[in-house]
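Follow-up to my post from last week.
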Amino acid sequence: MMENYENLQKKANLIRKWCLKSTTAAGSGHPTSCLSAADMMAVLFDRYFRYDLNNPLNLYNDRLVFSKGHAAPLLYTLFGMAGAYPLEELLTLRKFNSRFEGHPTPKFVYAEAATGSLGQGLSVAAGLALLAKRESLPCKNYVLLGDGELAEGQVWEAANFAAYHQLDNLVAIADINRLAQSGETMFGWDTDKYEQRFRAFGFETMVINGHDLKEVQIAFEQAFYHQGGKPLAIVAHTIKGKGVSFLEDKEGWHGKALTEEELQSALKELGEPDDQLKLDLRHPDSISLPKQEVVAPKHGLSFEKGNEYATREVFGEAITESGHQNKDIYVLDADVKNSTFSEDFLRAFPERFVECFIAEQNMVSVAAGLSRLGKIPVVATFGAFLTRAADQIRMARVSEANIKFVGSHVGVSIGADGPSQMALEDIALFGALPDTVIFQPADAVSTVKLTVQMTGHTGFFYMRTLRSKTPVLYDNAETFKIGGSKLLRHSEDDQLTIAATGITVFEALKAADQLKEEGILVRVLDCYCINPIDQDTLIKCVRETKNAILITVEDHFVHGGMGDFATAALAMTGKPIQVKKLAVNEISASGKMEELLELAGINAAAIVNQVHTLISTTVLH
Amino acid sequence: MMENYENLQKKANLIRKWCLKSTTAAGSGHPTSCLSAADMMAVLFDRYFRYDLNNPLNLYNDRLVFSKGHAAPLLYTLFGMAGAYPLEELLTLRKFNSRFEGHPTPKFVYAEAATGSLGQGLSVAAGLALLAKRESLPCKNYVLLGDGELAEGQVWEAANFAAYHQLDNLVAIADINRLAQSGETMFGWDTDKYEQRFRAFGFETMVINGHDLKEVQIAFEQAFYHQGGKPLAIVAHTIKGKGVSFLEDKEGWHGKALTEEELQSALKELGEPDDQLKLDLRHPDSISLPKQEVVAPKHGLSFEKGNEYATREVFGEAITESGHQNKDIYVLDADVKNSTFSEDFLRAFPERFVECFIAEQNMVSVAAGLSRLGKIPVVATFGAFLTRAADQIRMARVSEANIKFVGSHVGVSIGADGPSQMALEDIALFGALPDTVIFQPADAVSTVKLTVQMTGHTGFFYMRTLRSKTPVLYDNAETFKIGGSKLLRHSEDDQLTIAATGITVFEALKAADQLKEEGILVRVLDCYCINPIDQDTLIKCVRETKNAILITVEDHFVHGGMGDFATAALAMTGKPIQVKKLAVNEISASGKMEELLELAGINAAAIVNQVHTLISTTVLH
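User reply:
Got it. Predicted complex:
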């Protein structure tokens, strides 16, 4: 057995060697953060980890999420020593076009998620573990956590979630190396404090010396056979920079590579480990990710003109219909399922509904985990509360996750609940993220059609739904597409164009009707797709109207909304086009919808006024 | 003593009456969430709370943060029964122009912060408590928490923070009424689970029956005299809808007002409480908020042209200089003080530096607490990690907090660390929030001047700082202002204008120099103020150049950035102006700064290409 650990120690030191070598070659990185976890990862990979290198998406693979993403060189070295690629390739670390980026990204196919914004990995692993639990996949879901990141609240959201959902296939490995980036962590080496926290949050816990291979092995052996309903936390006392005397437990070494000279001295201390040593992964049974089903483009839902529906309510019906057609759809909600109407889906498919309680950050990262294994997670909450998870949304986008976000109660139109509940910056948030499709259906028919579009395409989608009821605008046979819009009023004598979206479509229509009575004809466009905006139609409208004027009107703050998408689309043309953005310019209030639309200057009267002003001051072309 | 509690119970029932009456008058609201906490709040207000109604900012006031903001009618009733206004005014609840909004906002002067996005109040209270601790103010800081919101990770960030900073003047009151919006909470009435969590996070704890007035009084008595270093949590078993039989512990009553008929029946059950009853606040000593000092507009810092500095590093020096001149400035950082260079301030003013560890959400809400009492909090971390606190930033803006945010390491220019560390959506995030000034200094001189501007003005500010060094552009005597820009290259023969900001200013200058060699003159504008953008200068530039073309170039995602501010400013004019936005269009990578600027198409070569394309295809005017 001693012999056994001696060889394992050599492997651990070879891991160390390549963490140091690769970061020195890169000239940057976090080698000391790798060294504290090297022994534990050696044991895990050499003795317990079941993984098919040829198929990272094999459903029977164990999973390892590197929540402490700055220890990426360690992750890269592990898979290299397991045989995924020659170790020499690690010398491309952090270089342009290398798969080994500074923090793990999808370029590294073995990364379960992009990490590097701290405190998100436990949630991703919980998503993976939840799926394994629900689909009876015999795998373990490990996550390596740094100690500094345990201050992030999301970790405790995830801990609650894991315990609540009885994820005993989840193993949190907390690398307590005492030192964070700028000094000692909150609790230093007081591993009890961490253990108490995990235990209070419903985990079984172990405290170990993360450098005693025997202790580590015993812990992972227990983890391997662990069940009984509780998730498991291994709290490991470790030393940052372990294995190299001049790095061990020293401040000033976070995020710093060794010089070539320091490297040589370190490698000597490590006993010049043999590059031929391998980490022996176990081989899992093989079960491939099933081919994703395609949502049939038909829905049985139909709506009569003259009736009114809240788009959030219709979304609930639509996503449930989609759920019948596509068994990969999962719906997640944060205790507002009776407001977002995701409860319809829960009733039909409890096995594919995930109650995340009031913890939006965890919800989004759990969704990223579900997406990793081919599910189509639909994340629903108030649009305002999606901002709570802005960083998780950002990281899910870096992860190339296929998530559909649905934000309800958008804009000042929600009324009496007041500004804290109004989503007014959500288009800016999602619009900034590359290739994110943004829908805002104004009526029931478009809601159904756009829900089908959303779940049928791979990629990042965001859909805004309304609190209040709106009348049916469209025939049930109408079609809707990514990048589309609908012309609702037009004639050959139109003076200008009004582009609206969501609730303001109805204000624009009212304004158009009033103006018509005065003899002023205007064009009204429903920009149900905010990104990509329908540039061709916008240009066409402006070209065909008497004045090259576009008024955009939306229930969103003025910067970063639909108006900016439309303005940018037109400004590229270089034509003499005037754009006036009507949008929310100040913090709103409580009141009736009508009062708040008026306060914001985005109601029919404001549109009419704006048309009067613009037409009277503009030279015809 | 019995007599005593009888009267108190009547007062509690009068509180209930007005929570019910006001929500029924409003036709919406969360009466049952008020009723569960009514008894506790009656005891607190009637027997312990020290508050000067004439001066909400009296520094010796006790503080009460309503983290469960949906219980706003309870908060409003408390202050009404304490004599702040006639109870009848509560019937304006949720109405337009009422100070009693659906959730507390600054319109209600007794609200310590806007709440309603859950899980933020403990942090705000911790900010208030920290200040009281550091400035030896003899007050208690209470926070009323719902049980549903205890799932929010931020609560546990705040708990860690409060215990770490030994805030024994902080009292968390957890109202465990079992029912959340859409069903039972994670732990129902298992108060032990909550107690364990608070205790593990370093609180002293008590579990009480929140409707037994004697138990409640004993708890608040202990809280009143509590000290010893640990914050205190009172975990109260309560009943949602308590006091009205048909509401008690019933599902389906969250966020629902009683009908007039139901109200009458409820009031009967409550014993038709006497409207003349008052809550007897204690009177604290009076010490007013000191008049805010003005930052002297002079800094001793000067920089020589030819030298290079990272703007983040200069920010560290500048904020420290400002700290000498203005004792109200506090600096908060989330374990990256050696990267943001806020550590300079820590060295000079440890008593006004707040280490928040890796918990950005709590950091921002703590800052909102500091701002409430007249401090000028400067919140520093990587720009990318400010997105972690997007919802807290949003709510701090609703709170009208005077916070200065400084985000370092913006854009792809950070290089090898990769996309997780790059702030590329931060301008969209801050730009959406009304009246938020956004600065991005490109060099050392402008960094100092803009830091002075930032700390000298009241309001929301965001400043972007760069990881890498940039050469000094400006004379030390140069002046900078909100809404300003600097013309760096211009002639009478300019073909078009390039507006740049931050790192891209140098790319624009390089491009201008290369183009000049080809005989093409272009104008280069440093948009150091992104919001409000310098509209006048932009219009002037476009008017004065041969082609009415603006190229914007920035190290930010293409939507929601400086380009959209500039485009919107020009599109309003209706002139034939072409705008081409050069910005980041896809998720970036690891690599050298130069490689990543090239990949994003925002380097000098890309600008030169764009100029060639635009000039060759544009008709002169």
